[in-house]
Amino acid sequence: MIEMHDVWKVYDNGVEALRGINVKIDRGEFVYIVGPSGAGKSTFIKLMYREEKPTHGVVLINGVNVKRVRDWKIPHVRRKIGVVFQDFKLLNMTAYDNVAFALEAIETPRRKIRPRVEEVLELVGLSDRMFAYPSQLSGGEQQRVAIARAIVNNPSFLIADEPTGNLDPENSWDIMYLLEEINKRGTTIVMATHNKEIVNTLRQRVIAIEQGIIVRDEEGGEYGYED
């Protein structure tokens, strides 16, 4: 699914965001990415969906060396990658249209769009809110729309970058239970988070990054930092 071999990322200002990263994430795993602010977590995540390219080393996504992919082919690589952000990034259109847009962008036949959109909105618990606009939705509901949009194309893995960062505890847990359900259905999930309680309660594999280096990689691990 995801492999990094001796990956370095050095930005133009000389900052070494990642240094000698070696990691493999298999199909069906649920992995937390943790570490202090500025540790390199965001860069690690961005390499997975080719928002950034490694300075050195190899990043393989579903067997594809993303550094060698031409820019015009990137959208094709991303079709099997779902991404969820902390700030939702919804368009000013209904929940239904936000999700449908992801299918329209890859030229899905129109007859297939409506049943699929309705299916994923039901999965995330928003069947009765599909024609609401983002301004009419709570933060938790907006994140559910964002997740529906990320999974509507049946991605092989889902990247979640601080998906509960802007949510209250109750909505955070609702989102986590939803992500667990998506994972149980076969989608690999990689989630960057600062939420100690979630990591320590819903035990999964934990990869800890500090100063651009993986310092810990353990199954059923703990968060390991004091906030």
Automatic annotation (TrEMBL):
Belongs to the ABC transporter superfamily. Homodimer. Forms a membrane-associated complex with FtsX. This is Cell division ATP-binding protein FtsE. InterPro entries: AAA+_ATPase, ABC_transporter-like_ATP-bd, ABC_transporter-like_CS, ABC_transpr_LolD-like, Cell_div_FtsE, P-loop_NTPase. The keyword Flavoprotein does not apply. The keyword Nucleotide-binding applies. It is found in: Cell membrane. SMART domains: AAA. The gene is ftsE. It comes from Lihuaxuella thermophila. GO terms for cellular component: plasma membrane. PANTHER family: CELL DIVISION ATP-BINDING PROTEIN FTSE (PTHR24220:SF470), IMPORT ATP-BINDING PROTEIN (PTHR24220). Part of the ABC transporter FtsEX involved in cellular division. It is a peripheral membrane protein. One of its GO terms (molecular function) is ATP binding. Pfam families: ABC_tran (PF00005). It comes from the Bacteria.
